[in-house]
Design goal:
The protein is of the alpha+beta class and 486 residues long. It has 11 helices and 7 strands. Helix 3 packs across helix 4 (130-217), helix 6 packs antiparallel against helix 7 (298-315) and helix 7 crosses helix 8. The relative contact order is 0.06.
């Protein structure tokens, strides 16, 4: 098929080339003789016109010199006289033929007599011989008139000969015009048809492939699919290219997401291992257990130990697997119980959870780090009246999880960085936003946000609101129809 396309192209261009060159050669040979004859006739008219004008110019400069007596006019006279002699020398070569030999000879003699009279006029004027230069000046005027009359006579003779030649030129011009219009129309239509075929069937797909290949070479794999209407090897090539670009785009996306997820999971595993026995957290918790065991009997102590065990067991679980929102809420309640036991009436934990919203899948350890962040950075420093509220409800096609505290709130810089992370616009080298002292997981809010984005494959997954000294709200917008991921 490639050979057939190439053969058709070569054949078309050869035919057009031969036709155009044959017609051009015919036009050239037909018009060459006419152009040559036309040039000869035109040169004759120009020469006669130049002689007539030059005689007038010589006469004018002579009159100016006599009136003004300035050397500038004299120089102009000699230049005009010299040019007139040059034109006189061209008469024999340009106008000589058997019909005007006598007239042409008389014409040349009149020019010579005219120049001689002008020279005598100048000479006698310079010698101040008034009567003589006046007589010569009259002769100059008389010869000038004879020259003009003879010039007109020669022009009339040439026009008579030119009339037949001009009629022949007109006939040939009409024929050439018709031939040219016919050739132009046929060539235009043929070229237009081929141009449409080429642009639609060959050049357009090749250009699109070239542009797409350039984009891929520059690292851009998100271009639109190339569409081809022809049913030839270009269609196969284009379809293969489209599939290749789609495979590359999917592979790059998978590699990027896997790399990002592996990085976050390694960070989670490392921090989880580092914080399996968080000295500060366990010290405070066990100190509370010890005091309760001293004051009370073993019932409340047993419940507290169960909560601690559940929390540690969940934190040390297999982090590569997803969990459910139900399990996340359960472990948050255990965390609430432990902290409420530690701090008593200083803090209050409230939950409003719709049970129908708890069956969706969610990455492990998504809620507890946010609760810890609200507790440590929000209400831990309050002497009384600290409140953290967990609310789960459905709105449209989303499950909304709101974690609200009435604590210290965030400064503008921290809030701006968290919102950048939530929108996916945070730079790769962004600084750590929270310290790890005092909480049990060591997993930051940034890590939670990025894992949620990767898990649900969208960036609009979290909203953050905070007012300094008035509290903070984290709002998770979880897709209701999500069936799980890694």
């Amino acid at each position: 098929m490639i050979i057939q396309i190439r053969t058709k192209l070569l054949l078309y261009f050869m035919i057009v080339f031969i036709i155009l060159n044959a017609v051009a050669f015919l036009f050239y040979k037909s018009s060459e003789k006419i152009v040559s004859e036309y040039d000869d006739s035109f040169e004759k008219f120009l020469l006669l016109n130049d002689i007539s004008q030059q005689v007038n110019l010589v006469n004018e400069k002579l009159q100016s010199y006599i009136v003004e007596e300035e050397d500038g006019f004299l120089k102009d006279y000699f230049r005009a006289r010299k040019q007139l002699l040059t034109y006189q020398g061209q008469l024999t070569n340009e106008l000589s033929n058997e019909n005007n030999a006598i007239t042409l000879s008389n014409y040349k003699n009149m020019i010579s007599s005219y120049i001689e009279a002008t020279d005598l006029t100048v000479g006698t004027f310079q010698q101040k011989e008034i009567n003589q230069y006046s007589s010569h000046l009259n002769e100059v005027t008389k010869f000038a008139g004879f020259i003009q009359e003879t010039t007109l006579s020669l022009v009339n003779n040439e026009l008579t000969d030119y009339q037949l030649f001009y009629e022949e030129i007109e006939n040939q011009n009409r024929n050439f015009t018709l031939m040219g219009m016919s050739l132009f129309s046929s060539t235009f239509l043929l070229s237009l048809l081929l141009a449409l075929l080429l642009s639609g069937g060959i050049t357009k797909p090749i250009r699109q492939l070239s542009e797409a290949a350039t984009e891929i070479s520059e690292g851009n794999f998100s271009g639109d699919e190339i569409k081809v209407t022809t049913n030839d090897e270009l269609k196969l090539l284009t379809n293969t290219f489209n599939q290749m670009r789609l495979n590359i785009r999917q592979l790059v996306s998978e590699i990027k997401q896997q790399s990002e997820l592996d990085k976050l999971l390694k960070e989670m595993e490392l921090k989880s291992l580092q914080n399996q026995i968080n000295p500060h957290f366990l010290f405070n918790t066990l100190n509370t257990v010890s005091k309760m065991a001293y004051i009370e009997e073993a019932q409340n102590t047993s419940r507290l130990i169960e909560a601690i065990a559940a929390l540690l067991r969940y934190n040390l679980g297999y982090l590569h697997k997803s969990s459910t929102l139900l399990n996340e809420v359960k472990i948050v309640k255990e965390y609430f119980y432990i902290q409420r036991t530690r701090f008593g009436e200083r803090i209050d934990f409230k939950t409003e959870v719709d049970p129908d919203c708890l069956n969706i899948e969610i990455p492990s350890l998504s809620l507890q780090p946010i609760i810890e962040n609200a507790f440590i950075h929000g209400i831990e420093s309050k002497e009384e009246g600290g409140v953290i509220k967990l609310k789960v409800f459905k709105k449209h096609d989303r499950i909304i999880v709101e974690i609200t505290d009435n604590g210290a709130g965030m400064d503008e810089n921290t809030l701006m960085k968290l919102r950048q992370i939530a929108k996916g616009t945070s730079p790769e080298d962004s600084v750590q936003l929270e310290k790890s002292t005092g909480h049990s997981t060591g997993i930051g809010v940034k890590n939670v946000i990025q894992r949620l984005q990767l898990f649900y494959k969208q960036t609009d997954i979290i909203e953050i609101e905070s007012i300094k000294e008035s509290g903070t709200t984290f709002r998770l917008l979880l897709p209701y129809d999500h069936k799980g991921g890694n």
